[in-house]
Amino acid sequence: MVTGILTLTDAVRLGSLLSAVQRNARVGWLDARDDVSTGTARAITDERGMFWTSGADVRDAYVWITTDKGFEDFRSVSNIMGAMERQEFILDYS
After folding, report:
1. How far is 80 from 56, CA to CA, in rounded Å?
2. Which domains does the chain have, with CATH numbers?
3. What are the φ/ψ torsions at residue 43 (nearest 5 degrees)?
């Protein structure tokens, strides 16, 4: 569960991420080996991949990404926001 306040910068970042998911945008990120991975953002889900319907903090949700390698990946919204801050997760990747 996410704790702490949502700053104005965080809110803008979160809004950009949610908008990208709604548009099924292409995304890119650095994986654990610092290799670039790419895919398409599909939906906001829970940890089991079910569509997010909770009234809870959306920062506790996950983003469903279909990778270009054909795998389904579920990444934590809060972790993506941190990666966006570090410029390790890019929206509208081309």
Report:
1. 18
2. 8-91 (2.30.30)
3. -165, 165
pLDDT grade, residue 82 (50/70/90)?
A: very high
- Give the residue-averaged pLDDT of 10-38: 96
DSSP state of 49: S
Q: In whole angstroms, give the CA distance from residue 26 to residue 4.
A: 29
In the three-class reduction of DSSP (H, G, I as helix; E, B as strand; rest coil), residue 92 is classed as coil
Q: Which amino acid is at 92?
A: D
Sign of CA dihedral 3, 91, 72, 52: positive
Separation CA 39–CA 17 (nearest Å): 14
Per-residue confidence at 49, pLDDT binned at 50, 70, 90?
very high
Q: Which H helix or E strand runs over 43?
A: strand 36-45
pTM of the model: 0.92
Task: Round to the nearest angstrom and report the end-to-end CA distance of the chain.
Answer: 32
